[in-house]
Amino acid sequence: MVDSDTNSWTEGLVFNSTIPLSFFLPMTPIFHPQLVNGPFGDPILYIDIKFAGRALLFDLGDIQALPARKLLRLTHIFVSHTHMDHFIGFDHLLRLFVGRQKTLALFGPAGFIAQVENRLAGYTWNLVEGYDTDLTLDVTEVPPDGSARCARFRLPPDRAPSRLAGAHGRGKTPHPHAFLSTLFRRSATAAA
User: Fold this and answer.
1) What is the pLDDT of residues 112-146, one digit of tens each?
2) Is the pTM of this model over 0.85?
């Protein structure tokens, strides 16, 4: 029986202790995963991180089903490979984020930096003069050997996206999240 005045749990003579009622309530999960397109659409996993105001996205296929308010929470995107069903959403995301003060971290396989750079180069950027904010893309490619290479692309208010000099490098996991793909590969190997 719960005494509503004191929020204590009492059970006659057997158990009489003051325990907060919240102890008996279910825990609220921090990570809220959502399979965006169901089991037969483009494979995209959106993970909302409650109370942090941010979200993760695993693969970047058709993201039209996600409302803008959810997409704007994204801070990190992990792309397994760049087949169309895993990367076509880049254009939609870019269109939504241009003109906003935002830094977005993207992770992908070998050659990913060049693919992002080519996507950005494919647009005419003559209408960005009116934007007074910067969009920054921190792109990391992680090849199968576990090494990583990083590049930063920035869309300043007065010109097209540029690759920042000195913002790229080569080495072992230069970004704290760059080891994600090798971590899963090692876990799968260890389990086998």
Assistant:
1) 999 999 998 888 777 777 777 788 999 999 998 88
2) no
Whole-angstrom distance, CA of residue 74 vs CA of residue 63:
12
Q: How far apart are CA 171 and CA 98, in angstroms?
A: 30
Q: How confident is the model over 71-92, as pLDDT tens digits?
A: 999 999 999 989 888 899 999 9
Residues of 9-34 as b/e, b for ≥16 C-beta within 10 angstroms? beeeeeeeeeeeeeeeeeeeeeeeee
Q: Shortest CA distance to 179 belongs to which of 190, 167, 189, 171?
A: 171
Residue 5 identity (one-letter amino acid):
D
- Which tokens belong to 123? 């647009």
Pairing of strands 74-78, 54-58: parallel
Q: Which residues, at least 6 apart from 17, have a Cβ–Cβ distance to it below 8 Å?
A: 8, 9, 10
